[in-house]
Structures are given as structure tokens and as C-alpha cells.
Design a protein that fits this description.
This protein is of the alpha+beta class and about 120 residues long. Helices cover about 25% and strands about 30% of the residues. Strands 1-7-6 form a 3-stranded antiparallel β-sheet. Strands 2-3 form a two-stranded antiparallel sheet. It is globular, with a radius of gyration of 13 Å. The two termini are about 20 Å apart.
């Protein structure tokens, strides 16, 4: 699980953390969507903790649908190979100041979409 303050994410995101598609989705008229960036970072950190080992954060692409909060995670590269066949369950909560995310990794049936690979 990871928790972050939204106000930390109102500026340009780090290229080493967010991939090109995440950066494109988070940019609107020269402004950065702090909630989307914060949620994406929380999911990546929660996955890191669930794996208990490092990975290239750009290999975990997070898409939060504005308004619905629905979260989709797409894995790439070595991370996708490592988790092929596993199920990721991603849960994101938000209030006015913080975002929280939890990621569960298992090989059983999922209660929602998000199979790795």
C-alpha cells in the first residue's frame, strides 16, 4: 500500500517514473493533472512493495479514468515477463488531499480486470 499527497504532483512528472503515454494523458493545455500523476505514482509504489524488489517504474503503465476512478494497469518489458499469468488487483482511494493505492498479486481468480501480461 502507498499513500501520497496530491499537492506533490502539480509539476512536470519525472521521465524515469512515468512513460510517454502516462505523461501525455496527464498533460492538458500545459498543466499537469496532479491527481492522475499522484494516483499513478501510488500504484507503482504499491506494486514495488508487493513485489518486494525493484523494477523499472516505466514498465508499469497506469491509467486512471477521470470522473470514474477506474484504474487500468498495463505491464511492459521485463515486468510483464516476470508477472505473466499472475493477477494484479489494484485498488485506489482518493480524498481531497491524498491518494492511496493497494496492489495484490496472486495466481487465483480476480475480482476485477487486471491480469498481468
Amino acid at each position: 500500500m502507498d499513500t501520497e499527497r496530491i499537492d506533490r504532483f502539480g509539476r512536470e512528472p519525472l521521465e524515469g517514473v512515468f512513460g510517454p503515454e502516462e505523461r501525455r494523458r496527464a498533460s492538458c493545455d500545459g498543466e499537469w493533472d496532479a491527481v492522475r500523476l499522484c494516483a499513478g505514482f501510488c500504484v507503482k509504489e504499491a506494486l514495488w512493495k508487493a513485489l518486494e524488489e525493484p523494477y523499472d517504474l516505466r514498465e508499469c503503465e497506469v491509467n486512471i479514468e477521470p470522473g470514474t476512478g477506474r484504474t487500468a494497469v498495463r505491464l511492459h518489458g521485463d515486468l510483464a515477463d516476470r508477472l505473466r499469468g499472475m493477477v494484479l488487483e489494484v485498488h485506489v482511494w482518493q480524498d481531497s488531499q491524498e491518494v492511496r493505492a493497494a496492489v495484490l498479486i496472486h495466481d487465483g481468480p480476480s475480482s476485477r480486470e487486471g491480469e498481468a501480461g
